[in-house]
Design a protein that fits this description.
Elements (H helix, E strand, L loop, with lengths): L11 H5 L7 H13 L42 H30 L8 H4 L9 E2 L8 E2 L2 H21 L26 H32 L3 H10 L17
Antiparallel strand pairs: 1-2
Helix pairs in contact: 3-6
């Protein structure tokens, strides 16, 4: 999901005070749209992890995306710690979404010979090298040193901005949702759409982190990729499932 410029939406009360009577119908339509869209994920009436039985702590008031009122260990009671955890979770979510896609795609493509993700990297040491997406000549990686150098250059620039919050020419951007050149599609131009996209990002990111953990465990236990594991399970659900591998901790 593309990062976007942090914008705050106006409250209904302040907006109503600025809208002329002739546009009242437009205002009401906007309020209804927000209630069905981004607005339902924020504030005291947002969905919570135990529904109506949830007693959300005071520091989880629905201000931030993905807040379901769950902090039983009190890990986020300190505002600075809470901000740090939100940043860590968001960054790991983005990496997990990219990683989950990268684990599945090589195993789906005929051009990669359906190689599992944990064996794809070793192809760089072969004469043919790594043909990205199985397309000859698209991106052909032969040198792990060159790949490492390119990665260090690109990541040092991005991580330097994230750590300091300032990069020459990109001053004033929010380091968690910077927008600007990081949002070439303009997905955050509308504040309401942006608020909803942030919720979608963190929800899908959390699922992706669990998916990556599952991929790791499956690779260790079965010695196969996620696509092959899924196909094996679908072909024989009763015989191929987690219970069959519950006591097996080494690859086949």
């Amino acid at each position: 999901m593309a990062c976007a410029m942090l914008s705050s939406s106006l409250s209904t009360q302040s907006l109503a005070g600025r809208v002329a009577p002739s546009t009242g119908r437009t205002l009401r339509a906007r309020v209804v749209t927000q209630a069905k869209g981004a607005g339902q994920w924020y504030g005291p009436d947002r969905p919570k992890w135990l529904g109506n039985f949830t007693e959300a702590p005071s520091h989880l008031n629905g201000e931030f995306p993905g807040d379901y009122g769950w902090d039983t260990a009190g890990l986020s009671t300190d505002p600075e710690t809470f901000a740090r955890y939100r940043e860590i979770e968001t960054i790991h979510s983005r990496w997990a979404m990219l990683g989950a896609l990268g684990c599945v795609v090589p195993e789906l493509l005929d051009g990669t010979n359906h190689i599992p993700w944990f064996k794809a990297g070793e192809l760089i040491f072969e004469k043919r090298g790594i043909q990205y997406l199985g397309v000859n000549g698209f991106i052909n990686a032969h040198s792990i040193i060159a790949t490492l150098i390119v990665q260090v250059i690109l990541m040092s620039w991005v991580e330097g901005y994230r750590a300091s919050g300032e990069v020459k020419g990109l001053e004033g951007l929010d380091k968690l949702h910077p927008g600007g050149p990081f949002d070439p599609l303009g997905l955050a131009d509308d504040p309401d759409s942006f608020s909803e996209l942030k919720v979608k990002e963190i929800k899908n990111g959390r699922l992706a982190m669990f998916s990556m953990l599952r991929f790791f465990v499956q690779a260790i236990v079965t010695g196969k990729g996620p696509v092959q594991n899924l196909n094996d399970h679908l072909s024989s659900p009763g015989a191929v499932n987690a219970f069959n591998f519950a006591t097996k901790f080494t690859p086949e």
